[in-house]
Specification:
By secondary structure, the protein is an alpha/beta fold. The chain has one domain: P-loop containing nucleotide triphosphate hydrolases (Rossmann fold). The protein has five helices and seven strands; from the N terminus they run E-E-E-H-H-E-E-H-E-H-E-H. Helix 3 runs parallel beside helix 4. The longest helix has 12 residues. It is globular, with a radius of gyration of 17 Å.
Length: 192
């Protein structure tokens, strides 16, 4: 695949969807991915209406994603023991979370190699989370869960993991544990 002078073999191209219930933090998570991969120099903010993914006027006004939006980021493993050392292209698809746009999410799921399901640590698995999970099952989309909003009041990491087991019927393998919760949550400060 050749995009603006970058040739990446098809076996190193991945279509990855960001899927979740409304307000779980899909677009905000995507903005950080774009920042950390060097795709953008500044993290966009939904409240300021300057995210890369929510480009329509209606999306900026309402603060929600209405149509799926795609962008590309490149990543090269840097660890010396990494199995792959070549650059990979990730086509990132930020999907809507509102129930009214469920068909838009399903349309996107058909082309995904994998999905990141974003969960709000304060709310756990919500109704639209269950819907997009079933849709991903239908299209055999492998998923990884990302528990977001650990700094909000009522955030509960283990309750969210339990929710994934009970409501989604998924087996989980915890890959990272948060440091703290709510106002004691430790995260790196990223310049905006």
């Amino acid at each position: 695949m050749n995009i603006v002078g970058k040739k990446v073999p098809l076996d190193r191209v991945r279509n990855t969807g960001i899927i979740a219930h409304i307000d779980a933090g899909k677009t905000t998570t995507t903005e950080r991915i774009l920042f950390y991969t060097g795709k953008s120099y500044k993290i966009g903010d939904i409240d300021d209406g300057n995210t890369q993914m929510d480009w329509m006027d209606q999306e900026k006004e309402r603060g929600i994603t209405i149509v799926s939006a795609a962008t590309t980021a490149f990543w090269t493993p840097v660890l010396p023991h990494a199995r792959f050392k070549e650059e990979h292209r990730f086509n990132i698809i930020d999907t809507p979370g509102h129930v009214d746009f469920t068909a838009e999410v399903e349309r996107s799921l058909r082309v995904l190699d994998g999905g990141v399901i974003v969960l709000d640590a304060g709310s756990g698995v919500q109704s639209q989370t269950e819907t997009v999970w079933r849709q991903a099952d239908k299209y055999h989309v492998p998923r990884i869960a990302f528990i977001n909003k650990m700094d909000v009041l009522g955030a509960d990491y283990m309750a969210t993991i339990k929710d994934v087991h009970e409501k989604l019927g998924a087996k989980t393998a915890v890959m990272a544990l948060p440091l703290g919760v709510e106002n004691t949550f430790l995260s790196s400060n990223v310049p905006n």
